[in-house]
């Protein structure tokens, strides 16, 4: 099929996509790069095109950078742990034959269709609200004082919200992996004297390892840019300021576009470092 | 060790009864083959014995003890699956060690047993490979190795050779038979291939629709099939079954004559027909004969070679001593 003609046709057809990608990704990136070396504060009417690495130095040496980095890692790590542990459990449950399997599976996927802003608001007002949230009622019913989740353990609250959104994704990928496991392997392990827990540990989990790495890779890339959930719930207060949120604050709240852009470039570099690192692990896992 | 008794065992999936009440005795050290067409319940029966399926009613005794409700691992049986069911992420060594590891055996014993099994099965050079790097026959041997190290009361084989090519299948068949002679352990072997059944078994169990049609040694089944089904199923090429007036002459509803018990002549004989396809194997020739007025097609087996062209007229004469007679219900008339 790879004739000269079909090759040029393929190039022609790919061209629009490449063009869009260039316009939507490369231009903003270049502009960010350009601003990151400038002192650009539009509200004060300051625009100096070249101030060297000053923005970067300021951004990297500020105490908020390190704390935001730690927060980002905690948040991403926490969400990954919950979604993968929960996803494996859900996948194993959904694999069991049961009544109404099709509907249950659709329901499980549902949270993935809810927009981040909406789901964060629902969680904030319906569950976490101190005065009339469902958790407050539950705590009162059990005889405990109400707990203000968003101000007393804000990071955990956001982790729970985002994990709830991403659990369906992990479940879906892991479910297909569980279903592809040869049932004779489990039966062989059963004959070999492996109890249920050992079958999980020695047969199911190794079989899922590939799917788990894929989930980790994809989720990490998306989770590094969590924004709406933080914006809607805590506004970056109480130690929930991630790197993404810090960049936003520098640009829009402090109106310092140069500093924010430098932060953006740092974030891009860090995300790429993590991505390369993860790709290597995945590559190794996909090999065998 | 290795005596298995099935007493009035039944199995139903929902409303469908796949195995009606069934009795079977398997003696110590026997090589028993379950054979039958696909969907006849032979694999289900094996899985019932293994404990991978629960019996709906009835009892399974293993070595005199009631094992009906025992989990698979407590029955002391080892199974070799059709897909081999090797653990793909473990090396051959770890695959073979897995049952011992689960049983909590110490490292030294494990190592010794792995070495012994690997030596017996020619796997020593492959111990550190993953199953994905092995050929079909080698995987099969690993699966057997994993079964051997458990020192089971009986081995269960579920169509273990069906994924191998013809040449390898014959080789593995011999290896399994030699293994049986060496270990003298009870083996139960499921297959749909009657050649495998005939060559390997001490005792063949012919099944159809969950019912045992006949139990016996290969030659018993060949010489005295109890009914039409067994007569047609055992033997290759299939027995010729003739109905109608020709059968009534012999006082039967159906008569059967094996292809190798028909004499062939080009000039004279009892039955006349036209040659269809002739299959020349060198050592034997199978001739398909049409227009005999007896059955749609008759098969004749001749030792050596014979000149037979499509459309030639040919005469067949049965060896009357080898004629099988069946009544209207399909049962053998002695």
Overall 3D shape of chain B: globular
> In the CATH classification, which architecture of the largest domain in chain B applies?
3-Layer(aba) Sandwich
Order of helices and strands of chain B: EEEHEEEHHHEHEHEEHHEHEEEEEEEE
Helix content of chain A: over 70%
Overall geometry of chain A: globular
Mean pLDDT of chain B: 89
Give the number of helices of chain B: 9
What would CATH call the class of chain A? Mainly Alpha
Main sheet attributes: strand count, strand direction, barrel closure of chain B: 6 strands, mixed
What is the distance, rounded to the nearest whole angstrom, between the alpha carbons of the first and last residues of chain A?
30 Å
CATH architectural grouping of chain A: Orthogonal Bundle
Structural class of chain B: alpha+beta
Count of DSSP strands of chain A: 2
Radius of gyration of chain A: 24 Å
* Tally of individual domains of chain B: 2
Superfamily (CATH H level) name of chain A: MetI-like
Main sheet: strands, sense, barrel of chain A: 2 strands, antiparallel
Protein name (chain B): Sorbitol ABC transporter ATP-binding protein /mannitol ABC transporter ATP-binding protein
Family (chain B): Belongs to the ABC transporter superfamily.
GO molecular function, one term (chain B): ATP hydrolysis activity
Pfam family, one (chain B): TOBE
Structural account:
The complex is a heterodimer of chains A (about 290) and B (about 325). Chain A is mainly alpha-helical and about 290 residues long. Chain A has a single domain (about 60-285), classed as MetI-like fold. Helices cover about 75% and strands about 0% of the residues of chain A. Chain A has 13 helices and two strands; from the N terminus they run αββαααααααααααα. In chain A, strands 1-2 form a two-stranded antiparallel sheet. The longest helix of chain A has about 35 residues, at about 5-35. The model of chain A has no long low-confidence stretch (mean pLDDT about 85). With about 325 residues, chain B is α+β, with helices and mostly antiparallel strands. Chain B folds into two domains: about 5-230, 3-Layer(aba) Sandwich (Rossmann fold); about 240-334, Nucleic acid-binding proteins (OB fold (Dihydrolipoamide Acetyltransferase, E2P)). Helix content of chain B is about 25%, strand content about 30%. Chain B contains nine helices and 19 strands. Chain B has helices at about 40-50, 90-105, 105-120, 135-150, 165-185, 195-200, 220-225, 230-235, 245-250, and strands at about 5-15, 15-25, 30-35, 55-60, 65, 75-80, 155-160, 185-190, 205-210, 210-215, 240-245, 255, 260-265, 270-280, 285-290, 300-305, 315-320, 325, 330-334. In chain B, the strands form four sheets. A six-stranded mixed β-sheet of chain B has the order 6-7-8-3-9-10, sandwiched between helices. Chain B has a five-stranded antiparallel β-sheet with strand order 13-17-14-15-16, with no helix packed on it. In chain B, strands 2-1-4-5 form a four-stranded antiparallel β-sheet, with helices on one face. In chain B, α5 links the parallel β7 and β8. In chain B, α2 runs parallel beside α4. Chain B is globular, with a radius of gyration of 23 Å. The interface between A and B is medium-sized, with 18 and 24 residues. Chain A: This is Sorbitol ABC transporter membrane protein /mannitol ABC transporter membrane protein. Chain A: It comes from Jannaschia pohangensis. Chain A: It is found in: Cell membrane. Chain A: Belongs to the binding-protein-dependent transport system permease family. Chain A: InterPro entries: MetI-like (IPR000515), MetI-like_sf (IPR035906).
């Amino acid at each position: 099929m790879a004739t000269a003609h079909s090759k040029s046709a393929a190039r022609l057809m790919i061209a629009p996509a490449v063009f869009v990608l260039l316009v939507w990704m490369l231009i903003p990136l270049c502009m960010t790069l350009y601003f990151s070396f400038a002192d650009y504060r539009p509200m004060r009417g300051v625009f100096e095109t070249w101030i060297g690495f000053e923005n970067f130095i300021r951004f990297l040496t500020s105490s908020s950078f390190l704390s935001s980095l730690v927060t980002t890692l905690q948040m991403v790590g926490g969400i990954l742990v919950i979604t993968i542990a929960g996803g494996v459990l859900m996948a194993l449950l959904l694999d069991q034959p049961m009544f109404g399997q099709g509907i249950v599976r659709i329901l499980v996927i549902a949270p993935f269709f809810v927009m981040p802003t909406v789901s964060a608001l629902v969680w904030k007002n319906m569950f976490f609200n101190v005065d009339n949230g469902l958790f407050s009622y539950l705590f009162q019913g059990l005889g405990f004082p109400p707990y203000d989740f968003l101000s007393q353990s804000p990071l955990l609250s956001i982790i729970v919200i985002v994990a709830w959104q991403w659990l369906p994704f992990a479940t879906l990928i892991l479910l297909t992996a569980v279903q592809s496991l040869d049932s004779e392997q489990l039966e062989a392990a059963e004959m070999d004297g492996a109890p249920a827990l050992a079958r999980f540990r020695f047969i199911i989990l190794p079989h899922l390892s590939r799917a788990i790495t894929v989930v980790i890779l994809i989720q990490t890339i998306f989770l590094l840019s969590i924004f709406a959930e933080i914006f809607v719930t805590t506004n970056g207060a109480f130690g929930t300021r991630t790197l993404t949120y810090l960049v936003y604050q520098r640009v829009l709240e402090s109106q310092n576009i140069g500093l924010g852009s430098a932060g953006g470039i740092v974030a891009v570099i860090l995300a790429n470092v993590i991505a390369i690192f993860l790709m290597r692990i995945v590559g190794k896992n996909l090999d065998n | 060790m290795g005596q298995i008794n099935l007493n009035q065992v039944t199995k139903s999936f929902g409303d469908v009864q796949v195995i009606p009440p069934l009795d079977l005795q398997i003696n110590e050290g026997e090589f028993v083959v379950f054979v039958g067409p696909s969907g006849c319940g032979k694999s289900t029966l094996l899985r019932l014995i293994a404990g991978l399926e629960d019996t709906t009613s009835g009892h399974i005794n293993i070595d005199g003890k009631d094992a009906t409700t025992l989990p698979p691992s407590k029955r002391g049986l080892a199974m070799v699956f059709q897909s081999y069911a090797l653990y793909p992420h473990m090396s051959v060594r770890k695959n073979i060690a897995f049952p011992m590891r689960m049983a909590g055996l110490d490292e030294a014993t494990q190592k010794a047993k792995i070495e012994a099994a690997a030596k017996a099965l020619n796997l020593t050079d492959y111990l550190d490979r993953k199953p994905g790097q092995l050929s079909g026959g080698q995987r099969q041997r690993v699966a057997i190795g994993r079964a051997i190290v458990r020192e089971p009361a009986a081995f269960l084989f579920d169509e273990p050779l069906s994924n191998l090519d013809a040449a390898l299948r014959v080789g593995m068949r011999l290896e399994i038979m030699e293994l049986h002679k060496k270990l003298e352990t009870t083996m139960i072997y499921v297959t749909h291939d009657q050649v495998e059944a005939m060559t390997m078994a001490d005792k063949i169990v012919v099944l159809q629709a969950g019912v045992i049609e006949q139990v016996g040694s290969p030659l018993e089944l060949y010489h005295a099939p109890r009914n039409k089904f067994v007569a047609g199923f055992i033997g290759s090429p299939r027995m010729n079954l003739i109905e109608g007036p020709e059968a009534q002459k012999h006082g039967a509803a159906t008569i059967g004559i094996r292809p190798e018990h028909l004499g062939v002549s080009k000039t004279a004989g009892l039955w006349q027909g036209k040659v269809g396809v002739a299959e020349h194997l060198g050592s034997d020739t199978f001739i398909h004969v049409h227009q005999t007025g007896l059955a749609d097609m008759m098969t004749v087996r001749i030792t050596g070679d014979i000149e037979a062209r499509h459309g030639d007229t040919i005469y067949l004469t049965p060896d009357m001593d080898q004629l099988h007679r069946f009544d209207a219900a399909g049962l053998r008339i002695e």
